[in-house]
# Entry
Amino acid sequence: MNLCDIKTVKQVMGMFHLTFRKEFGQNFLTDRSVVEDIADACCQDANSTILEIGPGMGTLTYELALRHKSVVALEIDRGLIPVLDYTLGEFDNVTVHNEDVMQADLEALLAPAFEDGPVSVCANLPYYITSPILMKLLECGLPFDYITVMIQKEVADRLCSPAGGKDYGAITAVLSYYGEAEKLFVVPADKFIPAPKVDSAVIRIRLYKERPYHPKDEALMFRTIKAAFAQRRKTLSNALSAGFSELTKDQINAVIADCGFEPTVRGERLDIAEFIQLSDKIGELLA
# Structure
């Protein structure tokens, strides 16, 4: 069954009396080479289990199941569950759960998979909830090898930007605490049905097995990053003064100087190691 063929997609949807659900950000790929490229890129270990988020009609799931030991798929749309039973019926290594990834207990769900080998994530993420899903995957503490996702190109550029780049932001800095992100390739809007208004891109995040960064207070590090980017056009001094009202402006300026930064530096110039240095110094004042 060619689930990248528009006629086939519409035929299957007709069989199950389905329509595209905008509230779930449903856009189905219609280019098999793109699907194959994503499946190839997500993980090189055939002994891996792949957590797929939002399998849709099973287009990517099919290719993942061919390449890996098992696939655990989470699909929020109840109407697609019988479709997936139909399109993936030939596989005995695919398990589909009718769950919202934002509500799912991933640790419990994937416990058997982690006991049996490595686990990676692969997904075509809805644009409207990309960041919350990524943050849940990063913050849940599970030892994923890779997270490979197709997202809005603009967001991909932001997540993969180096410190000081025009697209660098708070989420970029936070992501770099957990792993290294790279943009693999762009997917034009006309490769989907229905076609979105913007192009997409596929990124792969290699998660650190042992993080190279060790803040004294992780929560304070995140607070420092958030404060630095809350008022992007302001200097780091002004941004941190607004984010840490319990400290005086002179104290903030002293911390910035102690870290070796220029007085006029802006938050988007700092990489994750420098943010940790900064937050550790702030922590000494707050102690």
